[in-house]
Amino acid sequence: MSLLSLSGISREVVLPDGSLLPILTGVDLEIAPGEHVSIVGRSGSGKSTLLNILGLLDNPTAGTYLLDGEPTDHLRARRRSRLRGEVFGFVFQQFNLLPRRTAVENVAAPLLYARGRDFLRRRRTAAEMLDRVGLGARADHVPERLSGGEQQRVAIARALVRAPRVVLADEPTGALDVETGAQVMALLAEATSENGAALITITHDLSVAALASRRYRLDGGRLSPLVEAGSLGAATSDRGTA
Amino acid sequence: MTGVLGALSEAWDEVRVHKSRVVLSLVGVFLAVFAMTSVTAIGQIAAQVQQETAERTGGRPATIAVQAFDPMTGMPPDAEAWDVAVAELTGRYDLTTSATISYGEGLYRMPGGTQRVQTVRVSPSYGELHRKQPVEGRWFREGDRTSLSPALVVNEAFLEALGVPDLSSRPTVMLGGPTPVRATIVGVLREGYGSELVAYRVDRSGGSWGDAGAVDPMQAMYGGPSTLKLWVHPDQVDQVMETVRRDLGLALDGAQVDPYRMDAEGVEETLAVLRLAIRGAGVVVLILGGLGVLNIGLVTVRQRIREIGVRRSFGATSGRVFSAVMLESVCATALAGVAAVGAAVVLVRNLPVERWFSDGIPLADAPGFPVAAAIEGMIAATAVGALAGLLPAIIAVRAKVIDAIRF
Hints:
The structure holds 2 protein chains of 2 kinds. Chain A has helices at residues 47-54, 77-87, 103-108, 116-120, 122-132, 148-160, 178-195, 206-209, 229-241; strands at residues 4-14, 20-31, 36-40, 62-67, 70-71, 88-91, 166-170, 198-203, 214-219, 222-225. By secondary structure, chain A is an alpha/beta fold. In chain A, helix 5 packs across helix 6 (148-160) and helix 6 packs parallel to helix 7 (178-195). Chain A is globular, with a radius of gyration of 18 Å. The termini of chain A are far apart. Chain B has 2 domains: 2-57 and 267-405, no CATH class; 63-261, no CATH class. Chain B is 52% helix and 16% strand. Chain B is built from 12 helices and 10 strands. Chain B has helices spanning 2-17, 19-58, 79-92, 126-129, 156-161, 237-251, 267-303, 305-313, 318-350, 353-357, 371-398, 401-405, and strands spanning 63-69, 98-110, 113-122, 136-137, 151-155, 172-175, 181-189, 198-202, 226-231, 256-261. Chain A binds chain B through residues 47-48, 51-52, 55, 57-58, 77-78, 81-86, 88, 90, 92-93, 96, 98-101, 105, 109-110, 112-116, 119-120, 170-171, 202, and chain B through 2-3, 5-6, 9-10, 13, 17-18, 306-307, 310-320, 401-402, 405-407.
């Protein structure tokens, strides 16, 4: 059974003049546990909206989204929040580390919403996770004193600290240079793989997308497989227009 | 359980991380709670001073004064008969707090010659009834009745006229008249107008020297007409007055007995108004401080929308976001409250507040730092935090997570 299953997902927004703007149209997607999937597409193609829906931050206007076979459309807000914290880990393009908190405090932050032992041991768990991403020595540094690559590694450690089943990464290398980006992606792929978590990456960078076992292209709100070299070339040209 | 701990931990973390902002926002609350608590504490001391000042004159609530006289001649009843009747009355009804007072003049041999001085003859319990609190020495006690040297409590002008700076030399003064006796000054009161000399002696049952120093031979034995004072529960005033009128009238063979309430009945109301005014001023200051916290809270929460969005991605529920923002405000203001109450305690304890208000006369029942004021201060600070945190918390919950995070 798929871990995540999207069927006919559409999302529309109401514009100030009352008209409807379709963002996603009829998206079908199946994600299995531990799978690495990438989605490429130009700006405004609906990538972030799709990621928001996958991460239970937004609701589709039509279609069915099953999480572990359970429909998500009737979940109460509290349950959605709990599932979001327990099932998903987020990695953002701009890292979104909490300012003025040390690296270890940032990594421990998601565990504030955990229960029992996970909550009580949060600082130790966070320190261990920082060790895993090679930042044990920088645990007490605030983000302002870390490089971009280090900040993104802290963000990866934070995304993984609750042992999520799915990691949603939005342009994880977007704010990094090529070399650092490659290192970060290698780390992200390795860490999620070790955890057995599925990794869904949204990116402009086809070299990043190429790391995934399955690749998709999102264009005009429609999702389609990205398998041919020609398509890859088209996506590459998209990057220049973003 | 861990949810509550988590919310508290999150709130405390915010306070810790944003110390400067928190401190700035709390200056108003600190000052408001400090002012309110200090003013309330000082106000209570002032009220106590007011009350004791009023009670020094009129007696404690409720004090009934009783006088008797012959309706035909207007003369007071026979002194011995009066004493017997009063003793029977207080014994019969177990009126434990009663006192007698009579006014007269006494002859005192001062350094400049013998002087007539207004002399008040009282029973020792008069001190408790009228809160007589010497600035030096002590008030009378029952043992003074049998002392070989009559005890005197005088005012400061008397002591000055005697040429004595204080009681360290155990000063004495000769009471003149047919049977002179050396009296010992045991206490000094701060009362009387200007250079007016005042002396208190134990009442006329004061031993073998009881009549020494009396000016009027007619009053040599017992002094002037005596007034009985009774300290009773305010609710029993009418009943006691009726009983006293009836019983003493019968015992004194038809004498007219006039009991009347002499304590200042309006003092409580006046003090209540004073307390209300003080409280009102404190509340206004507190509201202003709360508005300061609210203002900074509103600005801050808008700057923190992104962070709130990130926390939502961690699984923070609406309730958790609400309580974290709210608790942050409550934690901070509660902390300011503790600091403000502490500062108020230090201030009030180290300032000679009683001396300022009571002209140096020590209070009989000196109030310590009012615990109620401290608790009120803490409650007020916490309530301000809750109210000031409410609006930012609502804004935080209503923030659209997607806009906040902006993937």
